[in-house]
TrEMBL record:
<dbReference type="InterPro" id="IPR050469">
    <property type="entry name" value="Diguanylate_Cyclase"/>
</dbReference>
<keyword id="KW-0548">Nucleotidyltransferase</keyword>
<protein>
    <recommendedName>
        <fullName>diguanylate cyclase</fullName>
        <ecNumber>2.7.7.65</ecNumber>
    </recommendedName>
</protein>
<dbReference type="Pfam" id="PF00072">
    <property type="entry name" value="Response_reg"/>
</dbReference>
<feature type="region of interest" description="Disordered">
    <location>
        <begin position="543"/>
        <end position="562"/>
    </location>
</feature>
<feature type="domain" description="Response regulatory">
    <location>
        <begin position="146"/>
        <end position="255"/>
    </location>
</feature>
<dbReference type="InterPro" id="IPR036641">
    <property type="entry name" value="HPT_dom_sf"/>
</dbReference>
<dbReference type="InterPro" id="IPR001789">
    <property type="entry name" value="Sig_transdc_resp-reg_receiver"/>
</dbReference>
<dbReference type="InterPro" id="IPR043128">
    <property type="entry name" value="Rev_trsase/Diguanyl_cyclase"/>
</dbReference>
<feature type="domain" description="Response regulatory">
    <location>
        <begin position="265"/>
        <end position="381"/>
    </location>
</feature>
<dbReference type="Pfam" id="PF00990">
    <property type="entry name" value="GGDEF"/>
</dbReference>
<dbReference type="Pfam" id="PF01627">
    <property type="entry name" value="Hpt"/>
</dbReference>
<dbReference type="InterPro" id="IPR011006">
    <property type="entry name" value="CheY-like_superfamily"/>
</dbReference>
<keyword id="KW-0597">Phosphoprotein</keyword>
<dbReference type="InterPro" id="IPR008207">
    <property type="entry name" value="Sig_transdc_His_kin_Hpt_dom"/>
</dbReference>
<dbReference type="InterPro" id="IPR029787">
    <property type="entry name" value="Nucleotide_cyclase"/>
</dbReference>
<dbReference type="InterPro" id="IPR000160">
    <property type="entry name" value="GGDEF_dom"/>
</dbReference>
Length: 562
């Protein structure tokens, strides 16, 4: 996030705080008037309920804006009033006596309400509004996958570097952890440390404010060693001798987890405009995509259009109850699996359990600090995405499954035809893969498949679609890309694939790749384009494998692009 954007967020948060102060001051004035009337015996049922709601609102929102003391005092008063507001037959017109009301709304209560006004000017002990200049959890996202390698041995550092560069990682080597960290760890994708003892015996990682995924390479694999590393905050361990594809796969998984953990689509439903805006800004500032809904009557239309990972919902919203809204959403099978998290100052466990049984999934109790909100939301978005991924992604590679890949290609065909752009579809197939399985075993074969998946993820753009089409067959769609550029990129994928050294059964080997590609928009349907790419792949296999063939090329012009 740019400096300008950060100060803009800080300015908006400050403005919201001022607006809250103004509203709270007015609300406390009204509360004072109401409780004084109670003392005089001048009240009706709705007065008691509205005092209760007013205290409930203050207790739920004050902490968020930094007025913890005000929030706590309002909560304590709310608890005292709650039995009066709750009593079914306790409303004045149903027999609640002035004496009973006075017992709760006594002199002390009135003076505590009056004192709320002075707490509006106190921010002591408050959860500090987030400083947008410091990342809340995960650090800055970088497009490139920069990896820092700490290895005191130049030869082994060189081997690691060469191996990882094939996957598209940008590698920087350091001889000590101190020099690597002095270079700055905040923006890097991973830190690979060969000097495992330094990590185990020093607290050097403890001081890191922003920690990238850290993988240690060690000579010995033992429970005690692994535990000591985990204790130090290390994320992964690889034993010597290092198998580069295994290490690359490990890194890929950790980086993906980290990247996915800091993104998410969140819909917030709250009738308090300041709270809604505050939550929205905090989550956006942390990298989330947010849709705010102030009017609960709009949730169905916004849901269909925005399709969030999770929904955060207030419980009491004027005439609407969050519990009923959650139950209503579950009428529709499409939203049965949507995680709904109530944001509520309701502390009563019985109520919470009842709310969860009616369609909600979780409770975040207000006031919630900015940091906690972001962490809690990020974790829940991550889980929701993981669950969706299980259904749509291939479990070995994490790439789109066959049917989803096909439907993405179908969409891209419609898009590029409509806009008159050139997009390319390609089929990729590992060469002589049966021999890999036969010679080195199925598990090693799996590692080769994962290796190609990781290579594609790194070498292609974020906007490209990658799917696992079959066993050792992949499909990619490259939107808005000329045939020449696609051919060049895919040839470089072939070159890097053949450069990766795999090992199995004590031997080292490499695997080549054949590709057939076709310009999507040149065909009437996406299936026709896929068929053409498949034909081109077939011709590539016939004419020597290891390279790219473009649909429509005559067999004699087929050749490896250099
Ligand atoms: N390890 C592993 N092997 C797989 C997987 N899916 C498919 N295969 C194997 O991939 C091999 C594909 O072999 P073939 O279709 O004969 O082709 P090939 O040996 O790659 O030969 P060419 O394509 O002609 O270069 C078969 O042995 C399958 O068992 C998988 O998920 N893991």
């Amino acid at each position: 996030m740019s400096e300008e954007k950060k100060s803009e967020v800080a300015r908006k948060l400050e403005l919201l705080k001022l607006r809250f102060k103004e509203k709270a001051t007015t609300e406390i004035g009204l509360l004072q008037g109401a409780v004084e009337r109670f003392r005089a015996g001048d009240y009706c049922a709705s007065d008691i309920t509205s005092v209760y709601h007013s205290l409930h609102r203050l207790s739920g929102s004050a902490g968020t804006f930094g007025f913890a003391a005000l929030g706590e005092e309002a909560r304590s008063l709310e608890r005292l009033v709650k039995p009066l507001a709750d009593t079914d037959d306790g409303l004045p017109e149903r027999g609640l006596t002035t004496a009973q009301v006075r017992e709760v709304v006594n002199e002390a209560f009135v003076s505590r309400v009056a004192n709320l006004a002075s707490l509006v000017s106190q921010e002591q002990g408050a959860p500090k509004p987030h400083d947008p200049s410091s990342p809340l959890i995960f650090g800055n996202k970088t497009e490139d996958s920069v990896v820092l390698i700490v290895d005191p041995e130049p030869d082994s550092a060189r081997d690691l570097t060469c191996g990882l560069e094939h996957y598209g990682f940008l590698v920087n080597v350091f001889s000590s952890i101190e020099s690597a960290l002095a270079n700055g760890a905040a923006g890097v994708s991973a830190l690979v440390v060969r000097d495992e003892l330094v990590i185990r015996e020093s607290g050097i990682l403890d001081a890191l404010a922003v920690k990238p995924p850290i993988i240690c390479i060690g000579a010995e694999d033992s429970f005690t060693g692994r535990y000591a590393l985990a204790e130090r905050g290390v994320d992964g361990f690889v034993c010597e001798p290092v198998d580069i594809p295994v290490l690359a796969d490990y890194m890929e998984r950790l980086i993906t987890e980290r990247d996915e953990g800091r993104s998410g689509r969140v819909m917030i439903v709250d009738d308090d405009p300041e709270l809604l805006e505050h939550y929205g800004l905090v989550l956006e500032n942390g990298g989330m995509e947010v849709r705010r809904v102030n009017n609960p009557a709009q949730i169905l239309s916004v849901l269909s259009e925005f399709r969030p990972d999770i929904m955060l919902m207030d419980v009491q919203m004027g005439q609407f109850s969050g519990l009923n809204l959650a139950r209503m959403l579950r009428f529709d099978p499409e939203w049965l699996g949507l995680p709904i998290i109530y944001l509520s100052s309701e502390e009563d466990r019985e109520f919470q359990v009842e709310a969860l049984s009616q369609g909600g999934d979780d409770f975040l109790t207000k006031p919630v600090s900015d940091r906690f909100l972001l962490r809690a939301v990020a974790v829940r978005c991550y889980r929701a995405r993981q669950r969706d991924k299980l259904a749509s992604r291939d479990s070995l590679t994490g790439l789109l499954k066959h049917s989803l890949a096909k439907s993405e290609i179908h969409k891209e065909h419609a898009r590029c035809t409509r806009l008159g752009q050139t997009s390319v579809v390609a089929m990729l197939d590992l060469d002589h893969f049966k021999q890999v399985n036969d010679r080195y075993g199925h598990r090693t074969g799996d590692l080769v498949i994962k290796g190609l998946a990781n290579l594609l993820r790194h070498r292609l753009r974020k906007s490209d679609m990658i799917g696992r089409y079959g066993g050792e067959e992949f499909v990619v769609a490259l939107p808005d890309c000329s045939v020449e550029d696609a051919q060049r990129v895919l040839q470089s994928v072939c070159d890097h694939m053949s450069g990766i050294v795999f090992s199995g059964g004590g031997r080292e080997f490499s695997v080549t790749l054949s590709v057939g590609m076709a310009p999507l928009g040149d065909f009437r349907t996406s299936d026709d384009a896929l068929e053409a790419a498949d034909q081109a792949l077939y011709r590539r296999k016939q004419s020597g494998r290891n390279g790219v063939t473009v649909s429509g090329d005559e067999p004699e012009t087929v050749g490896t692009v250099s």
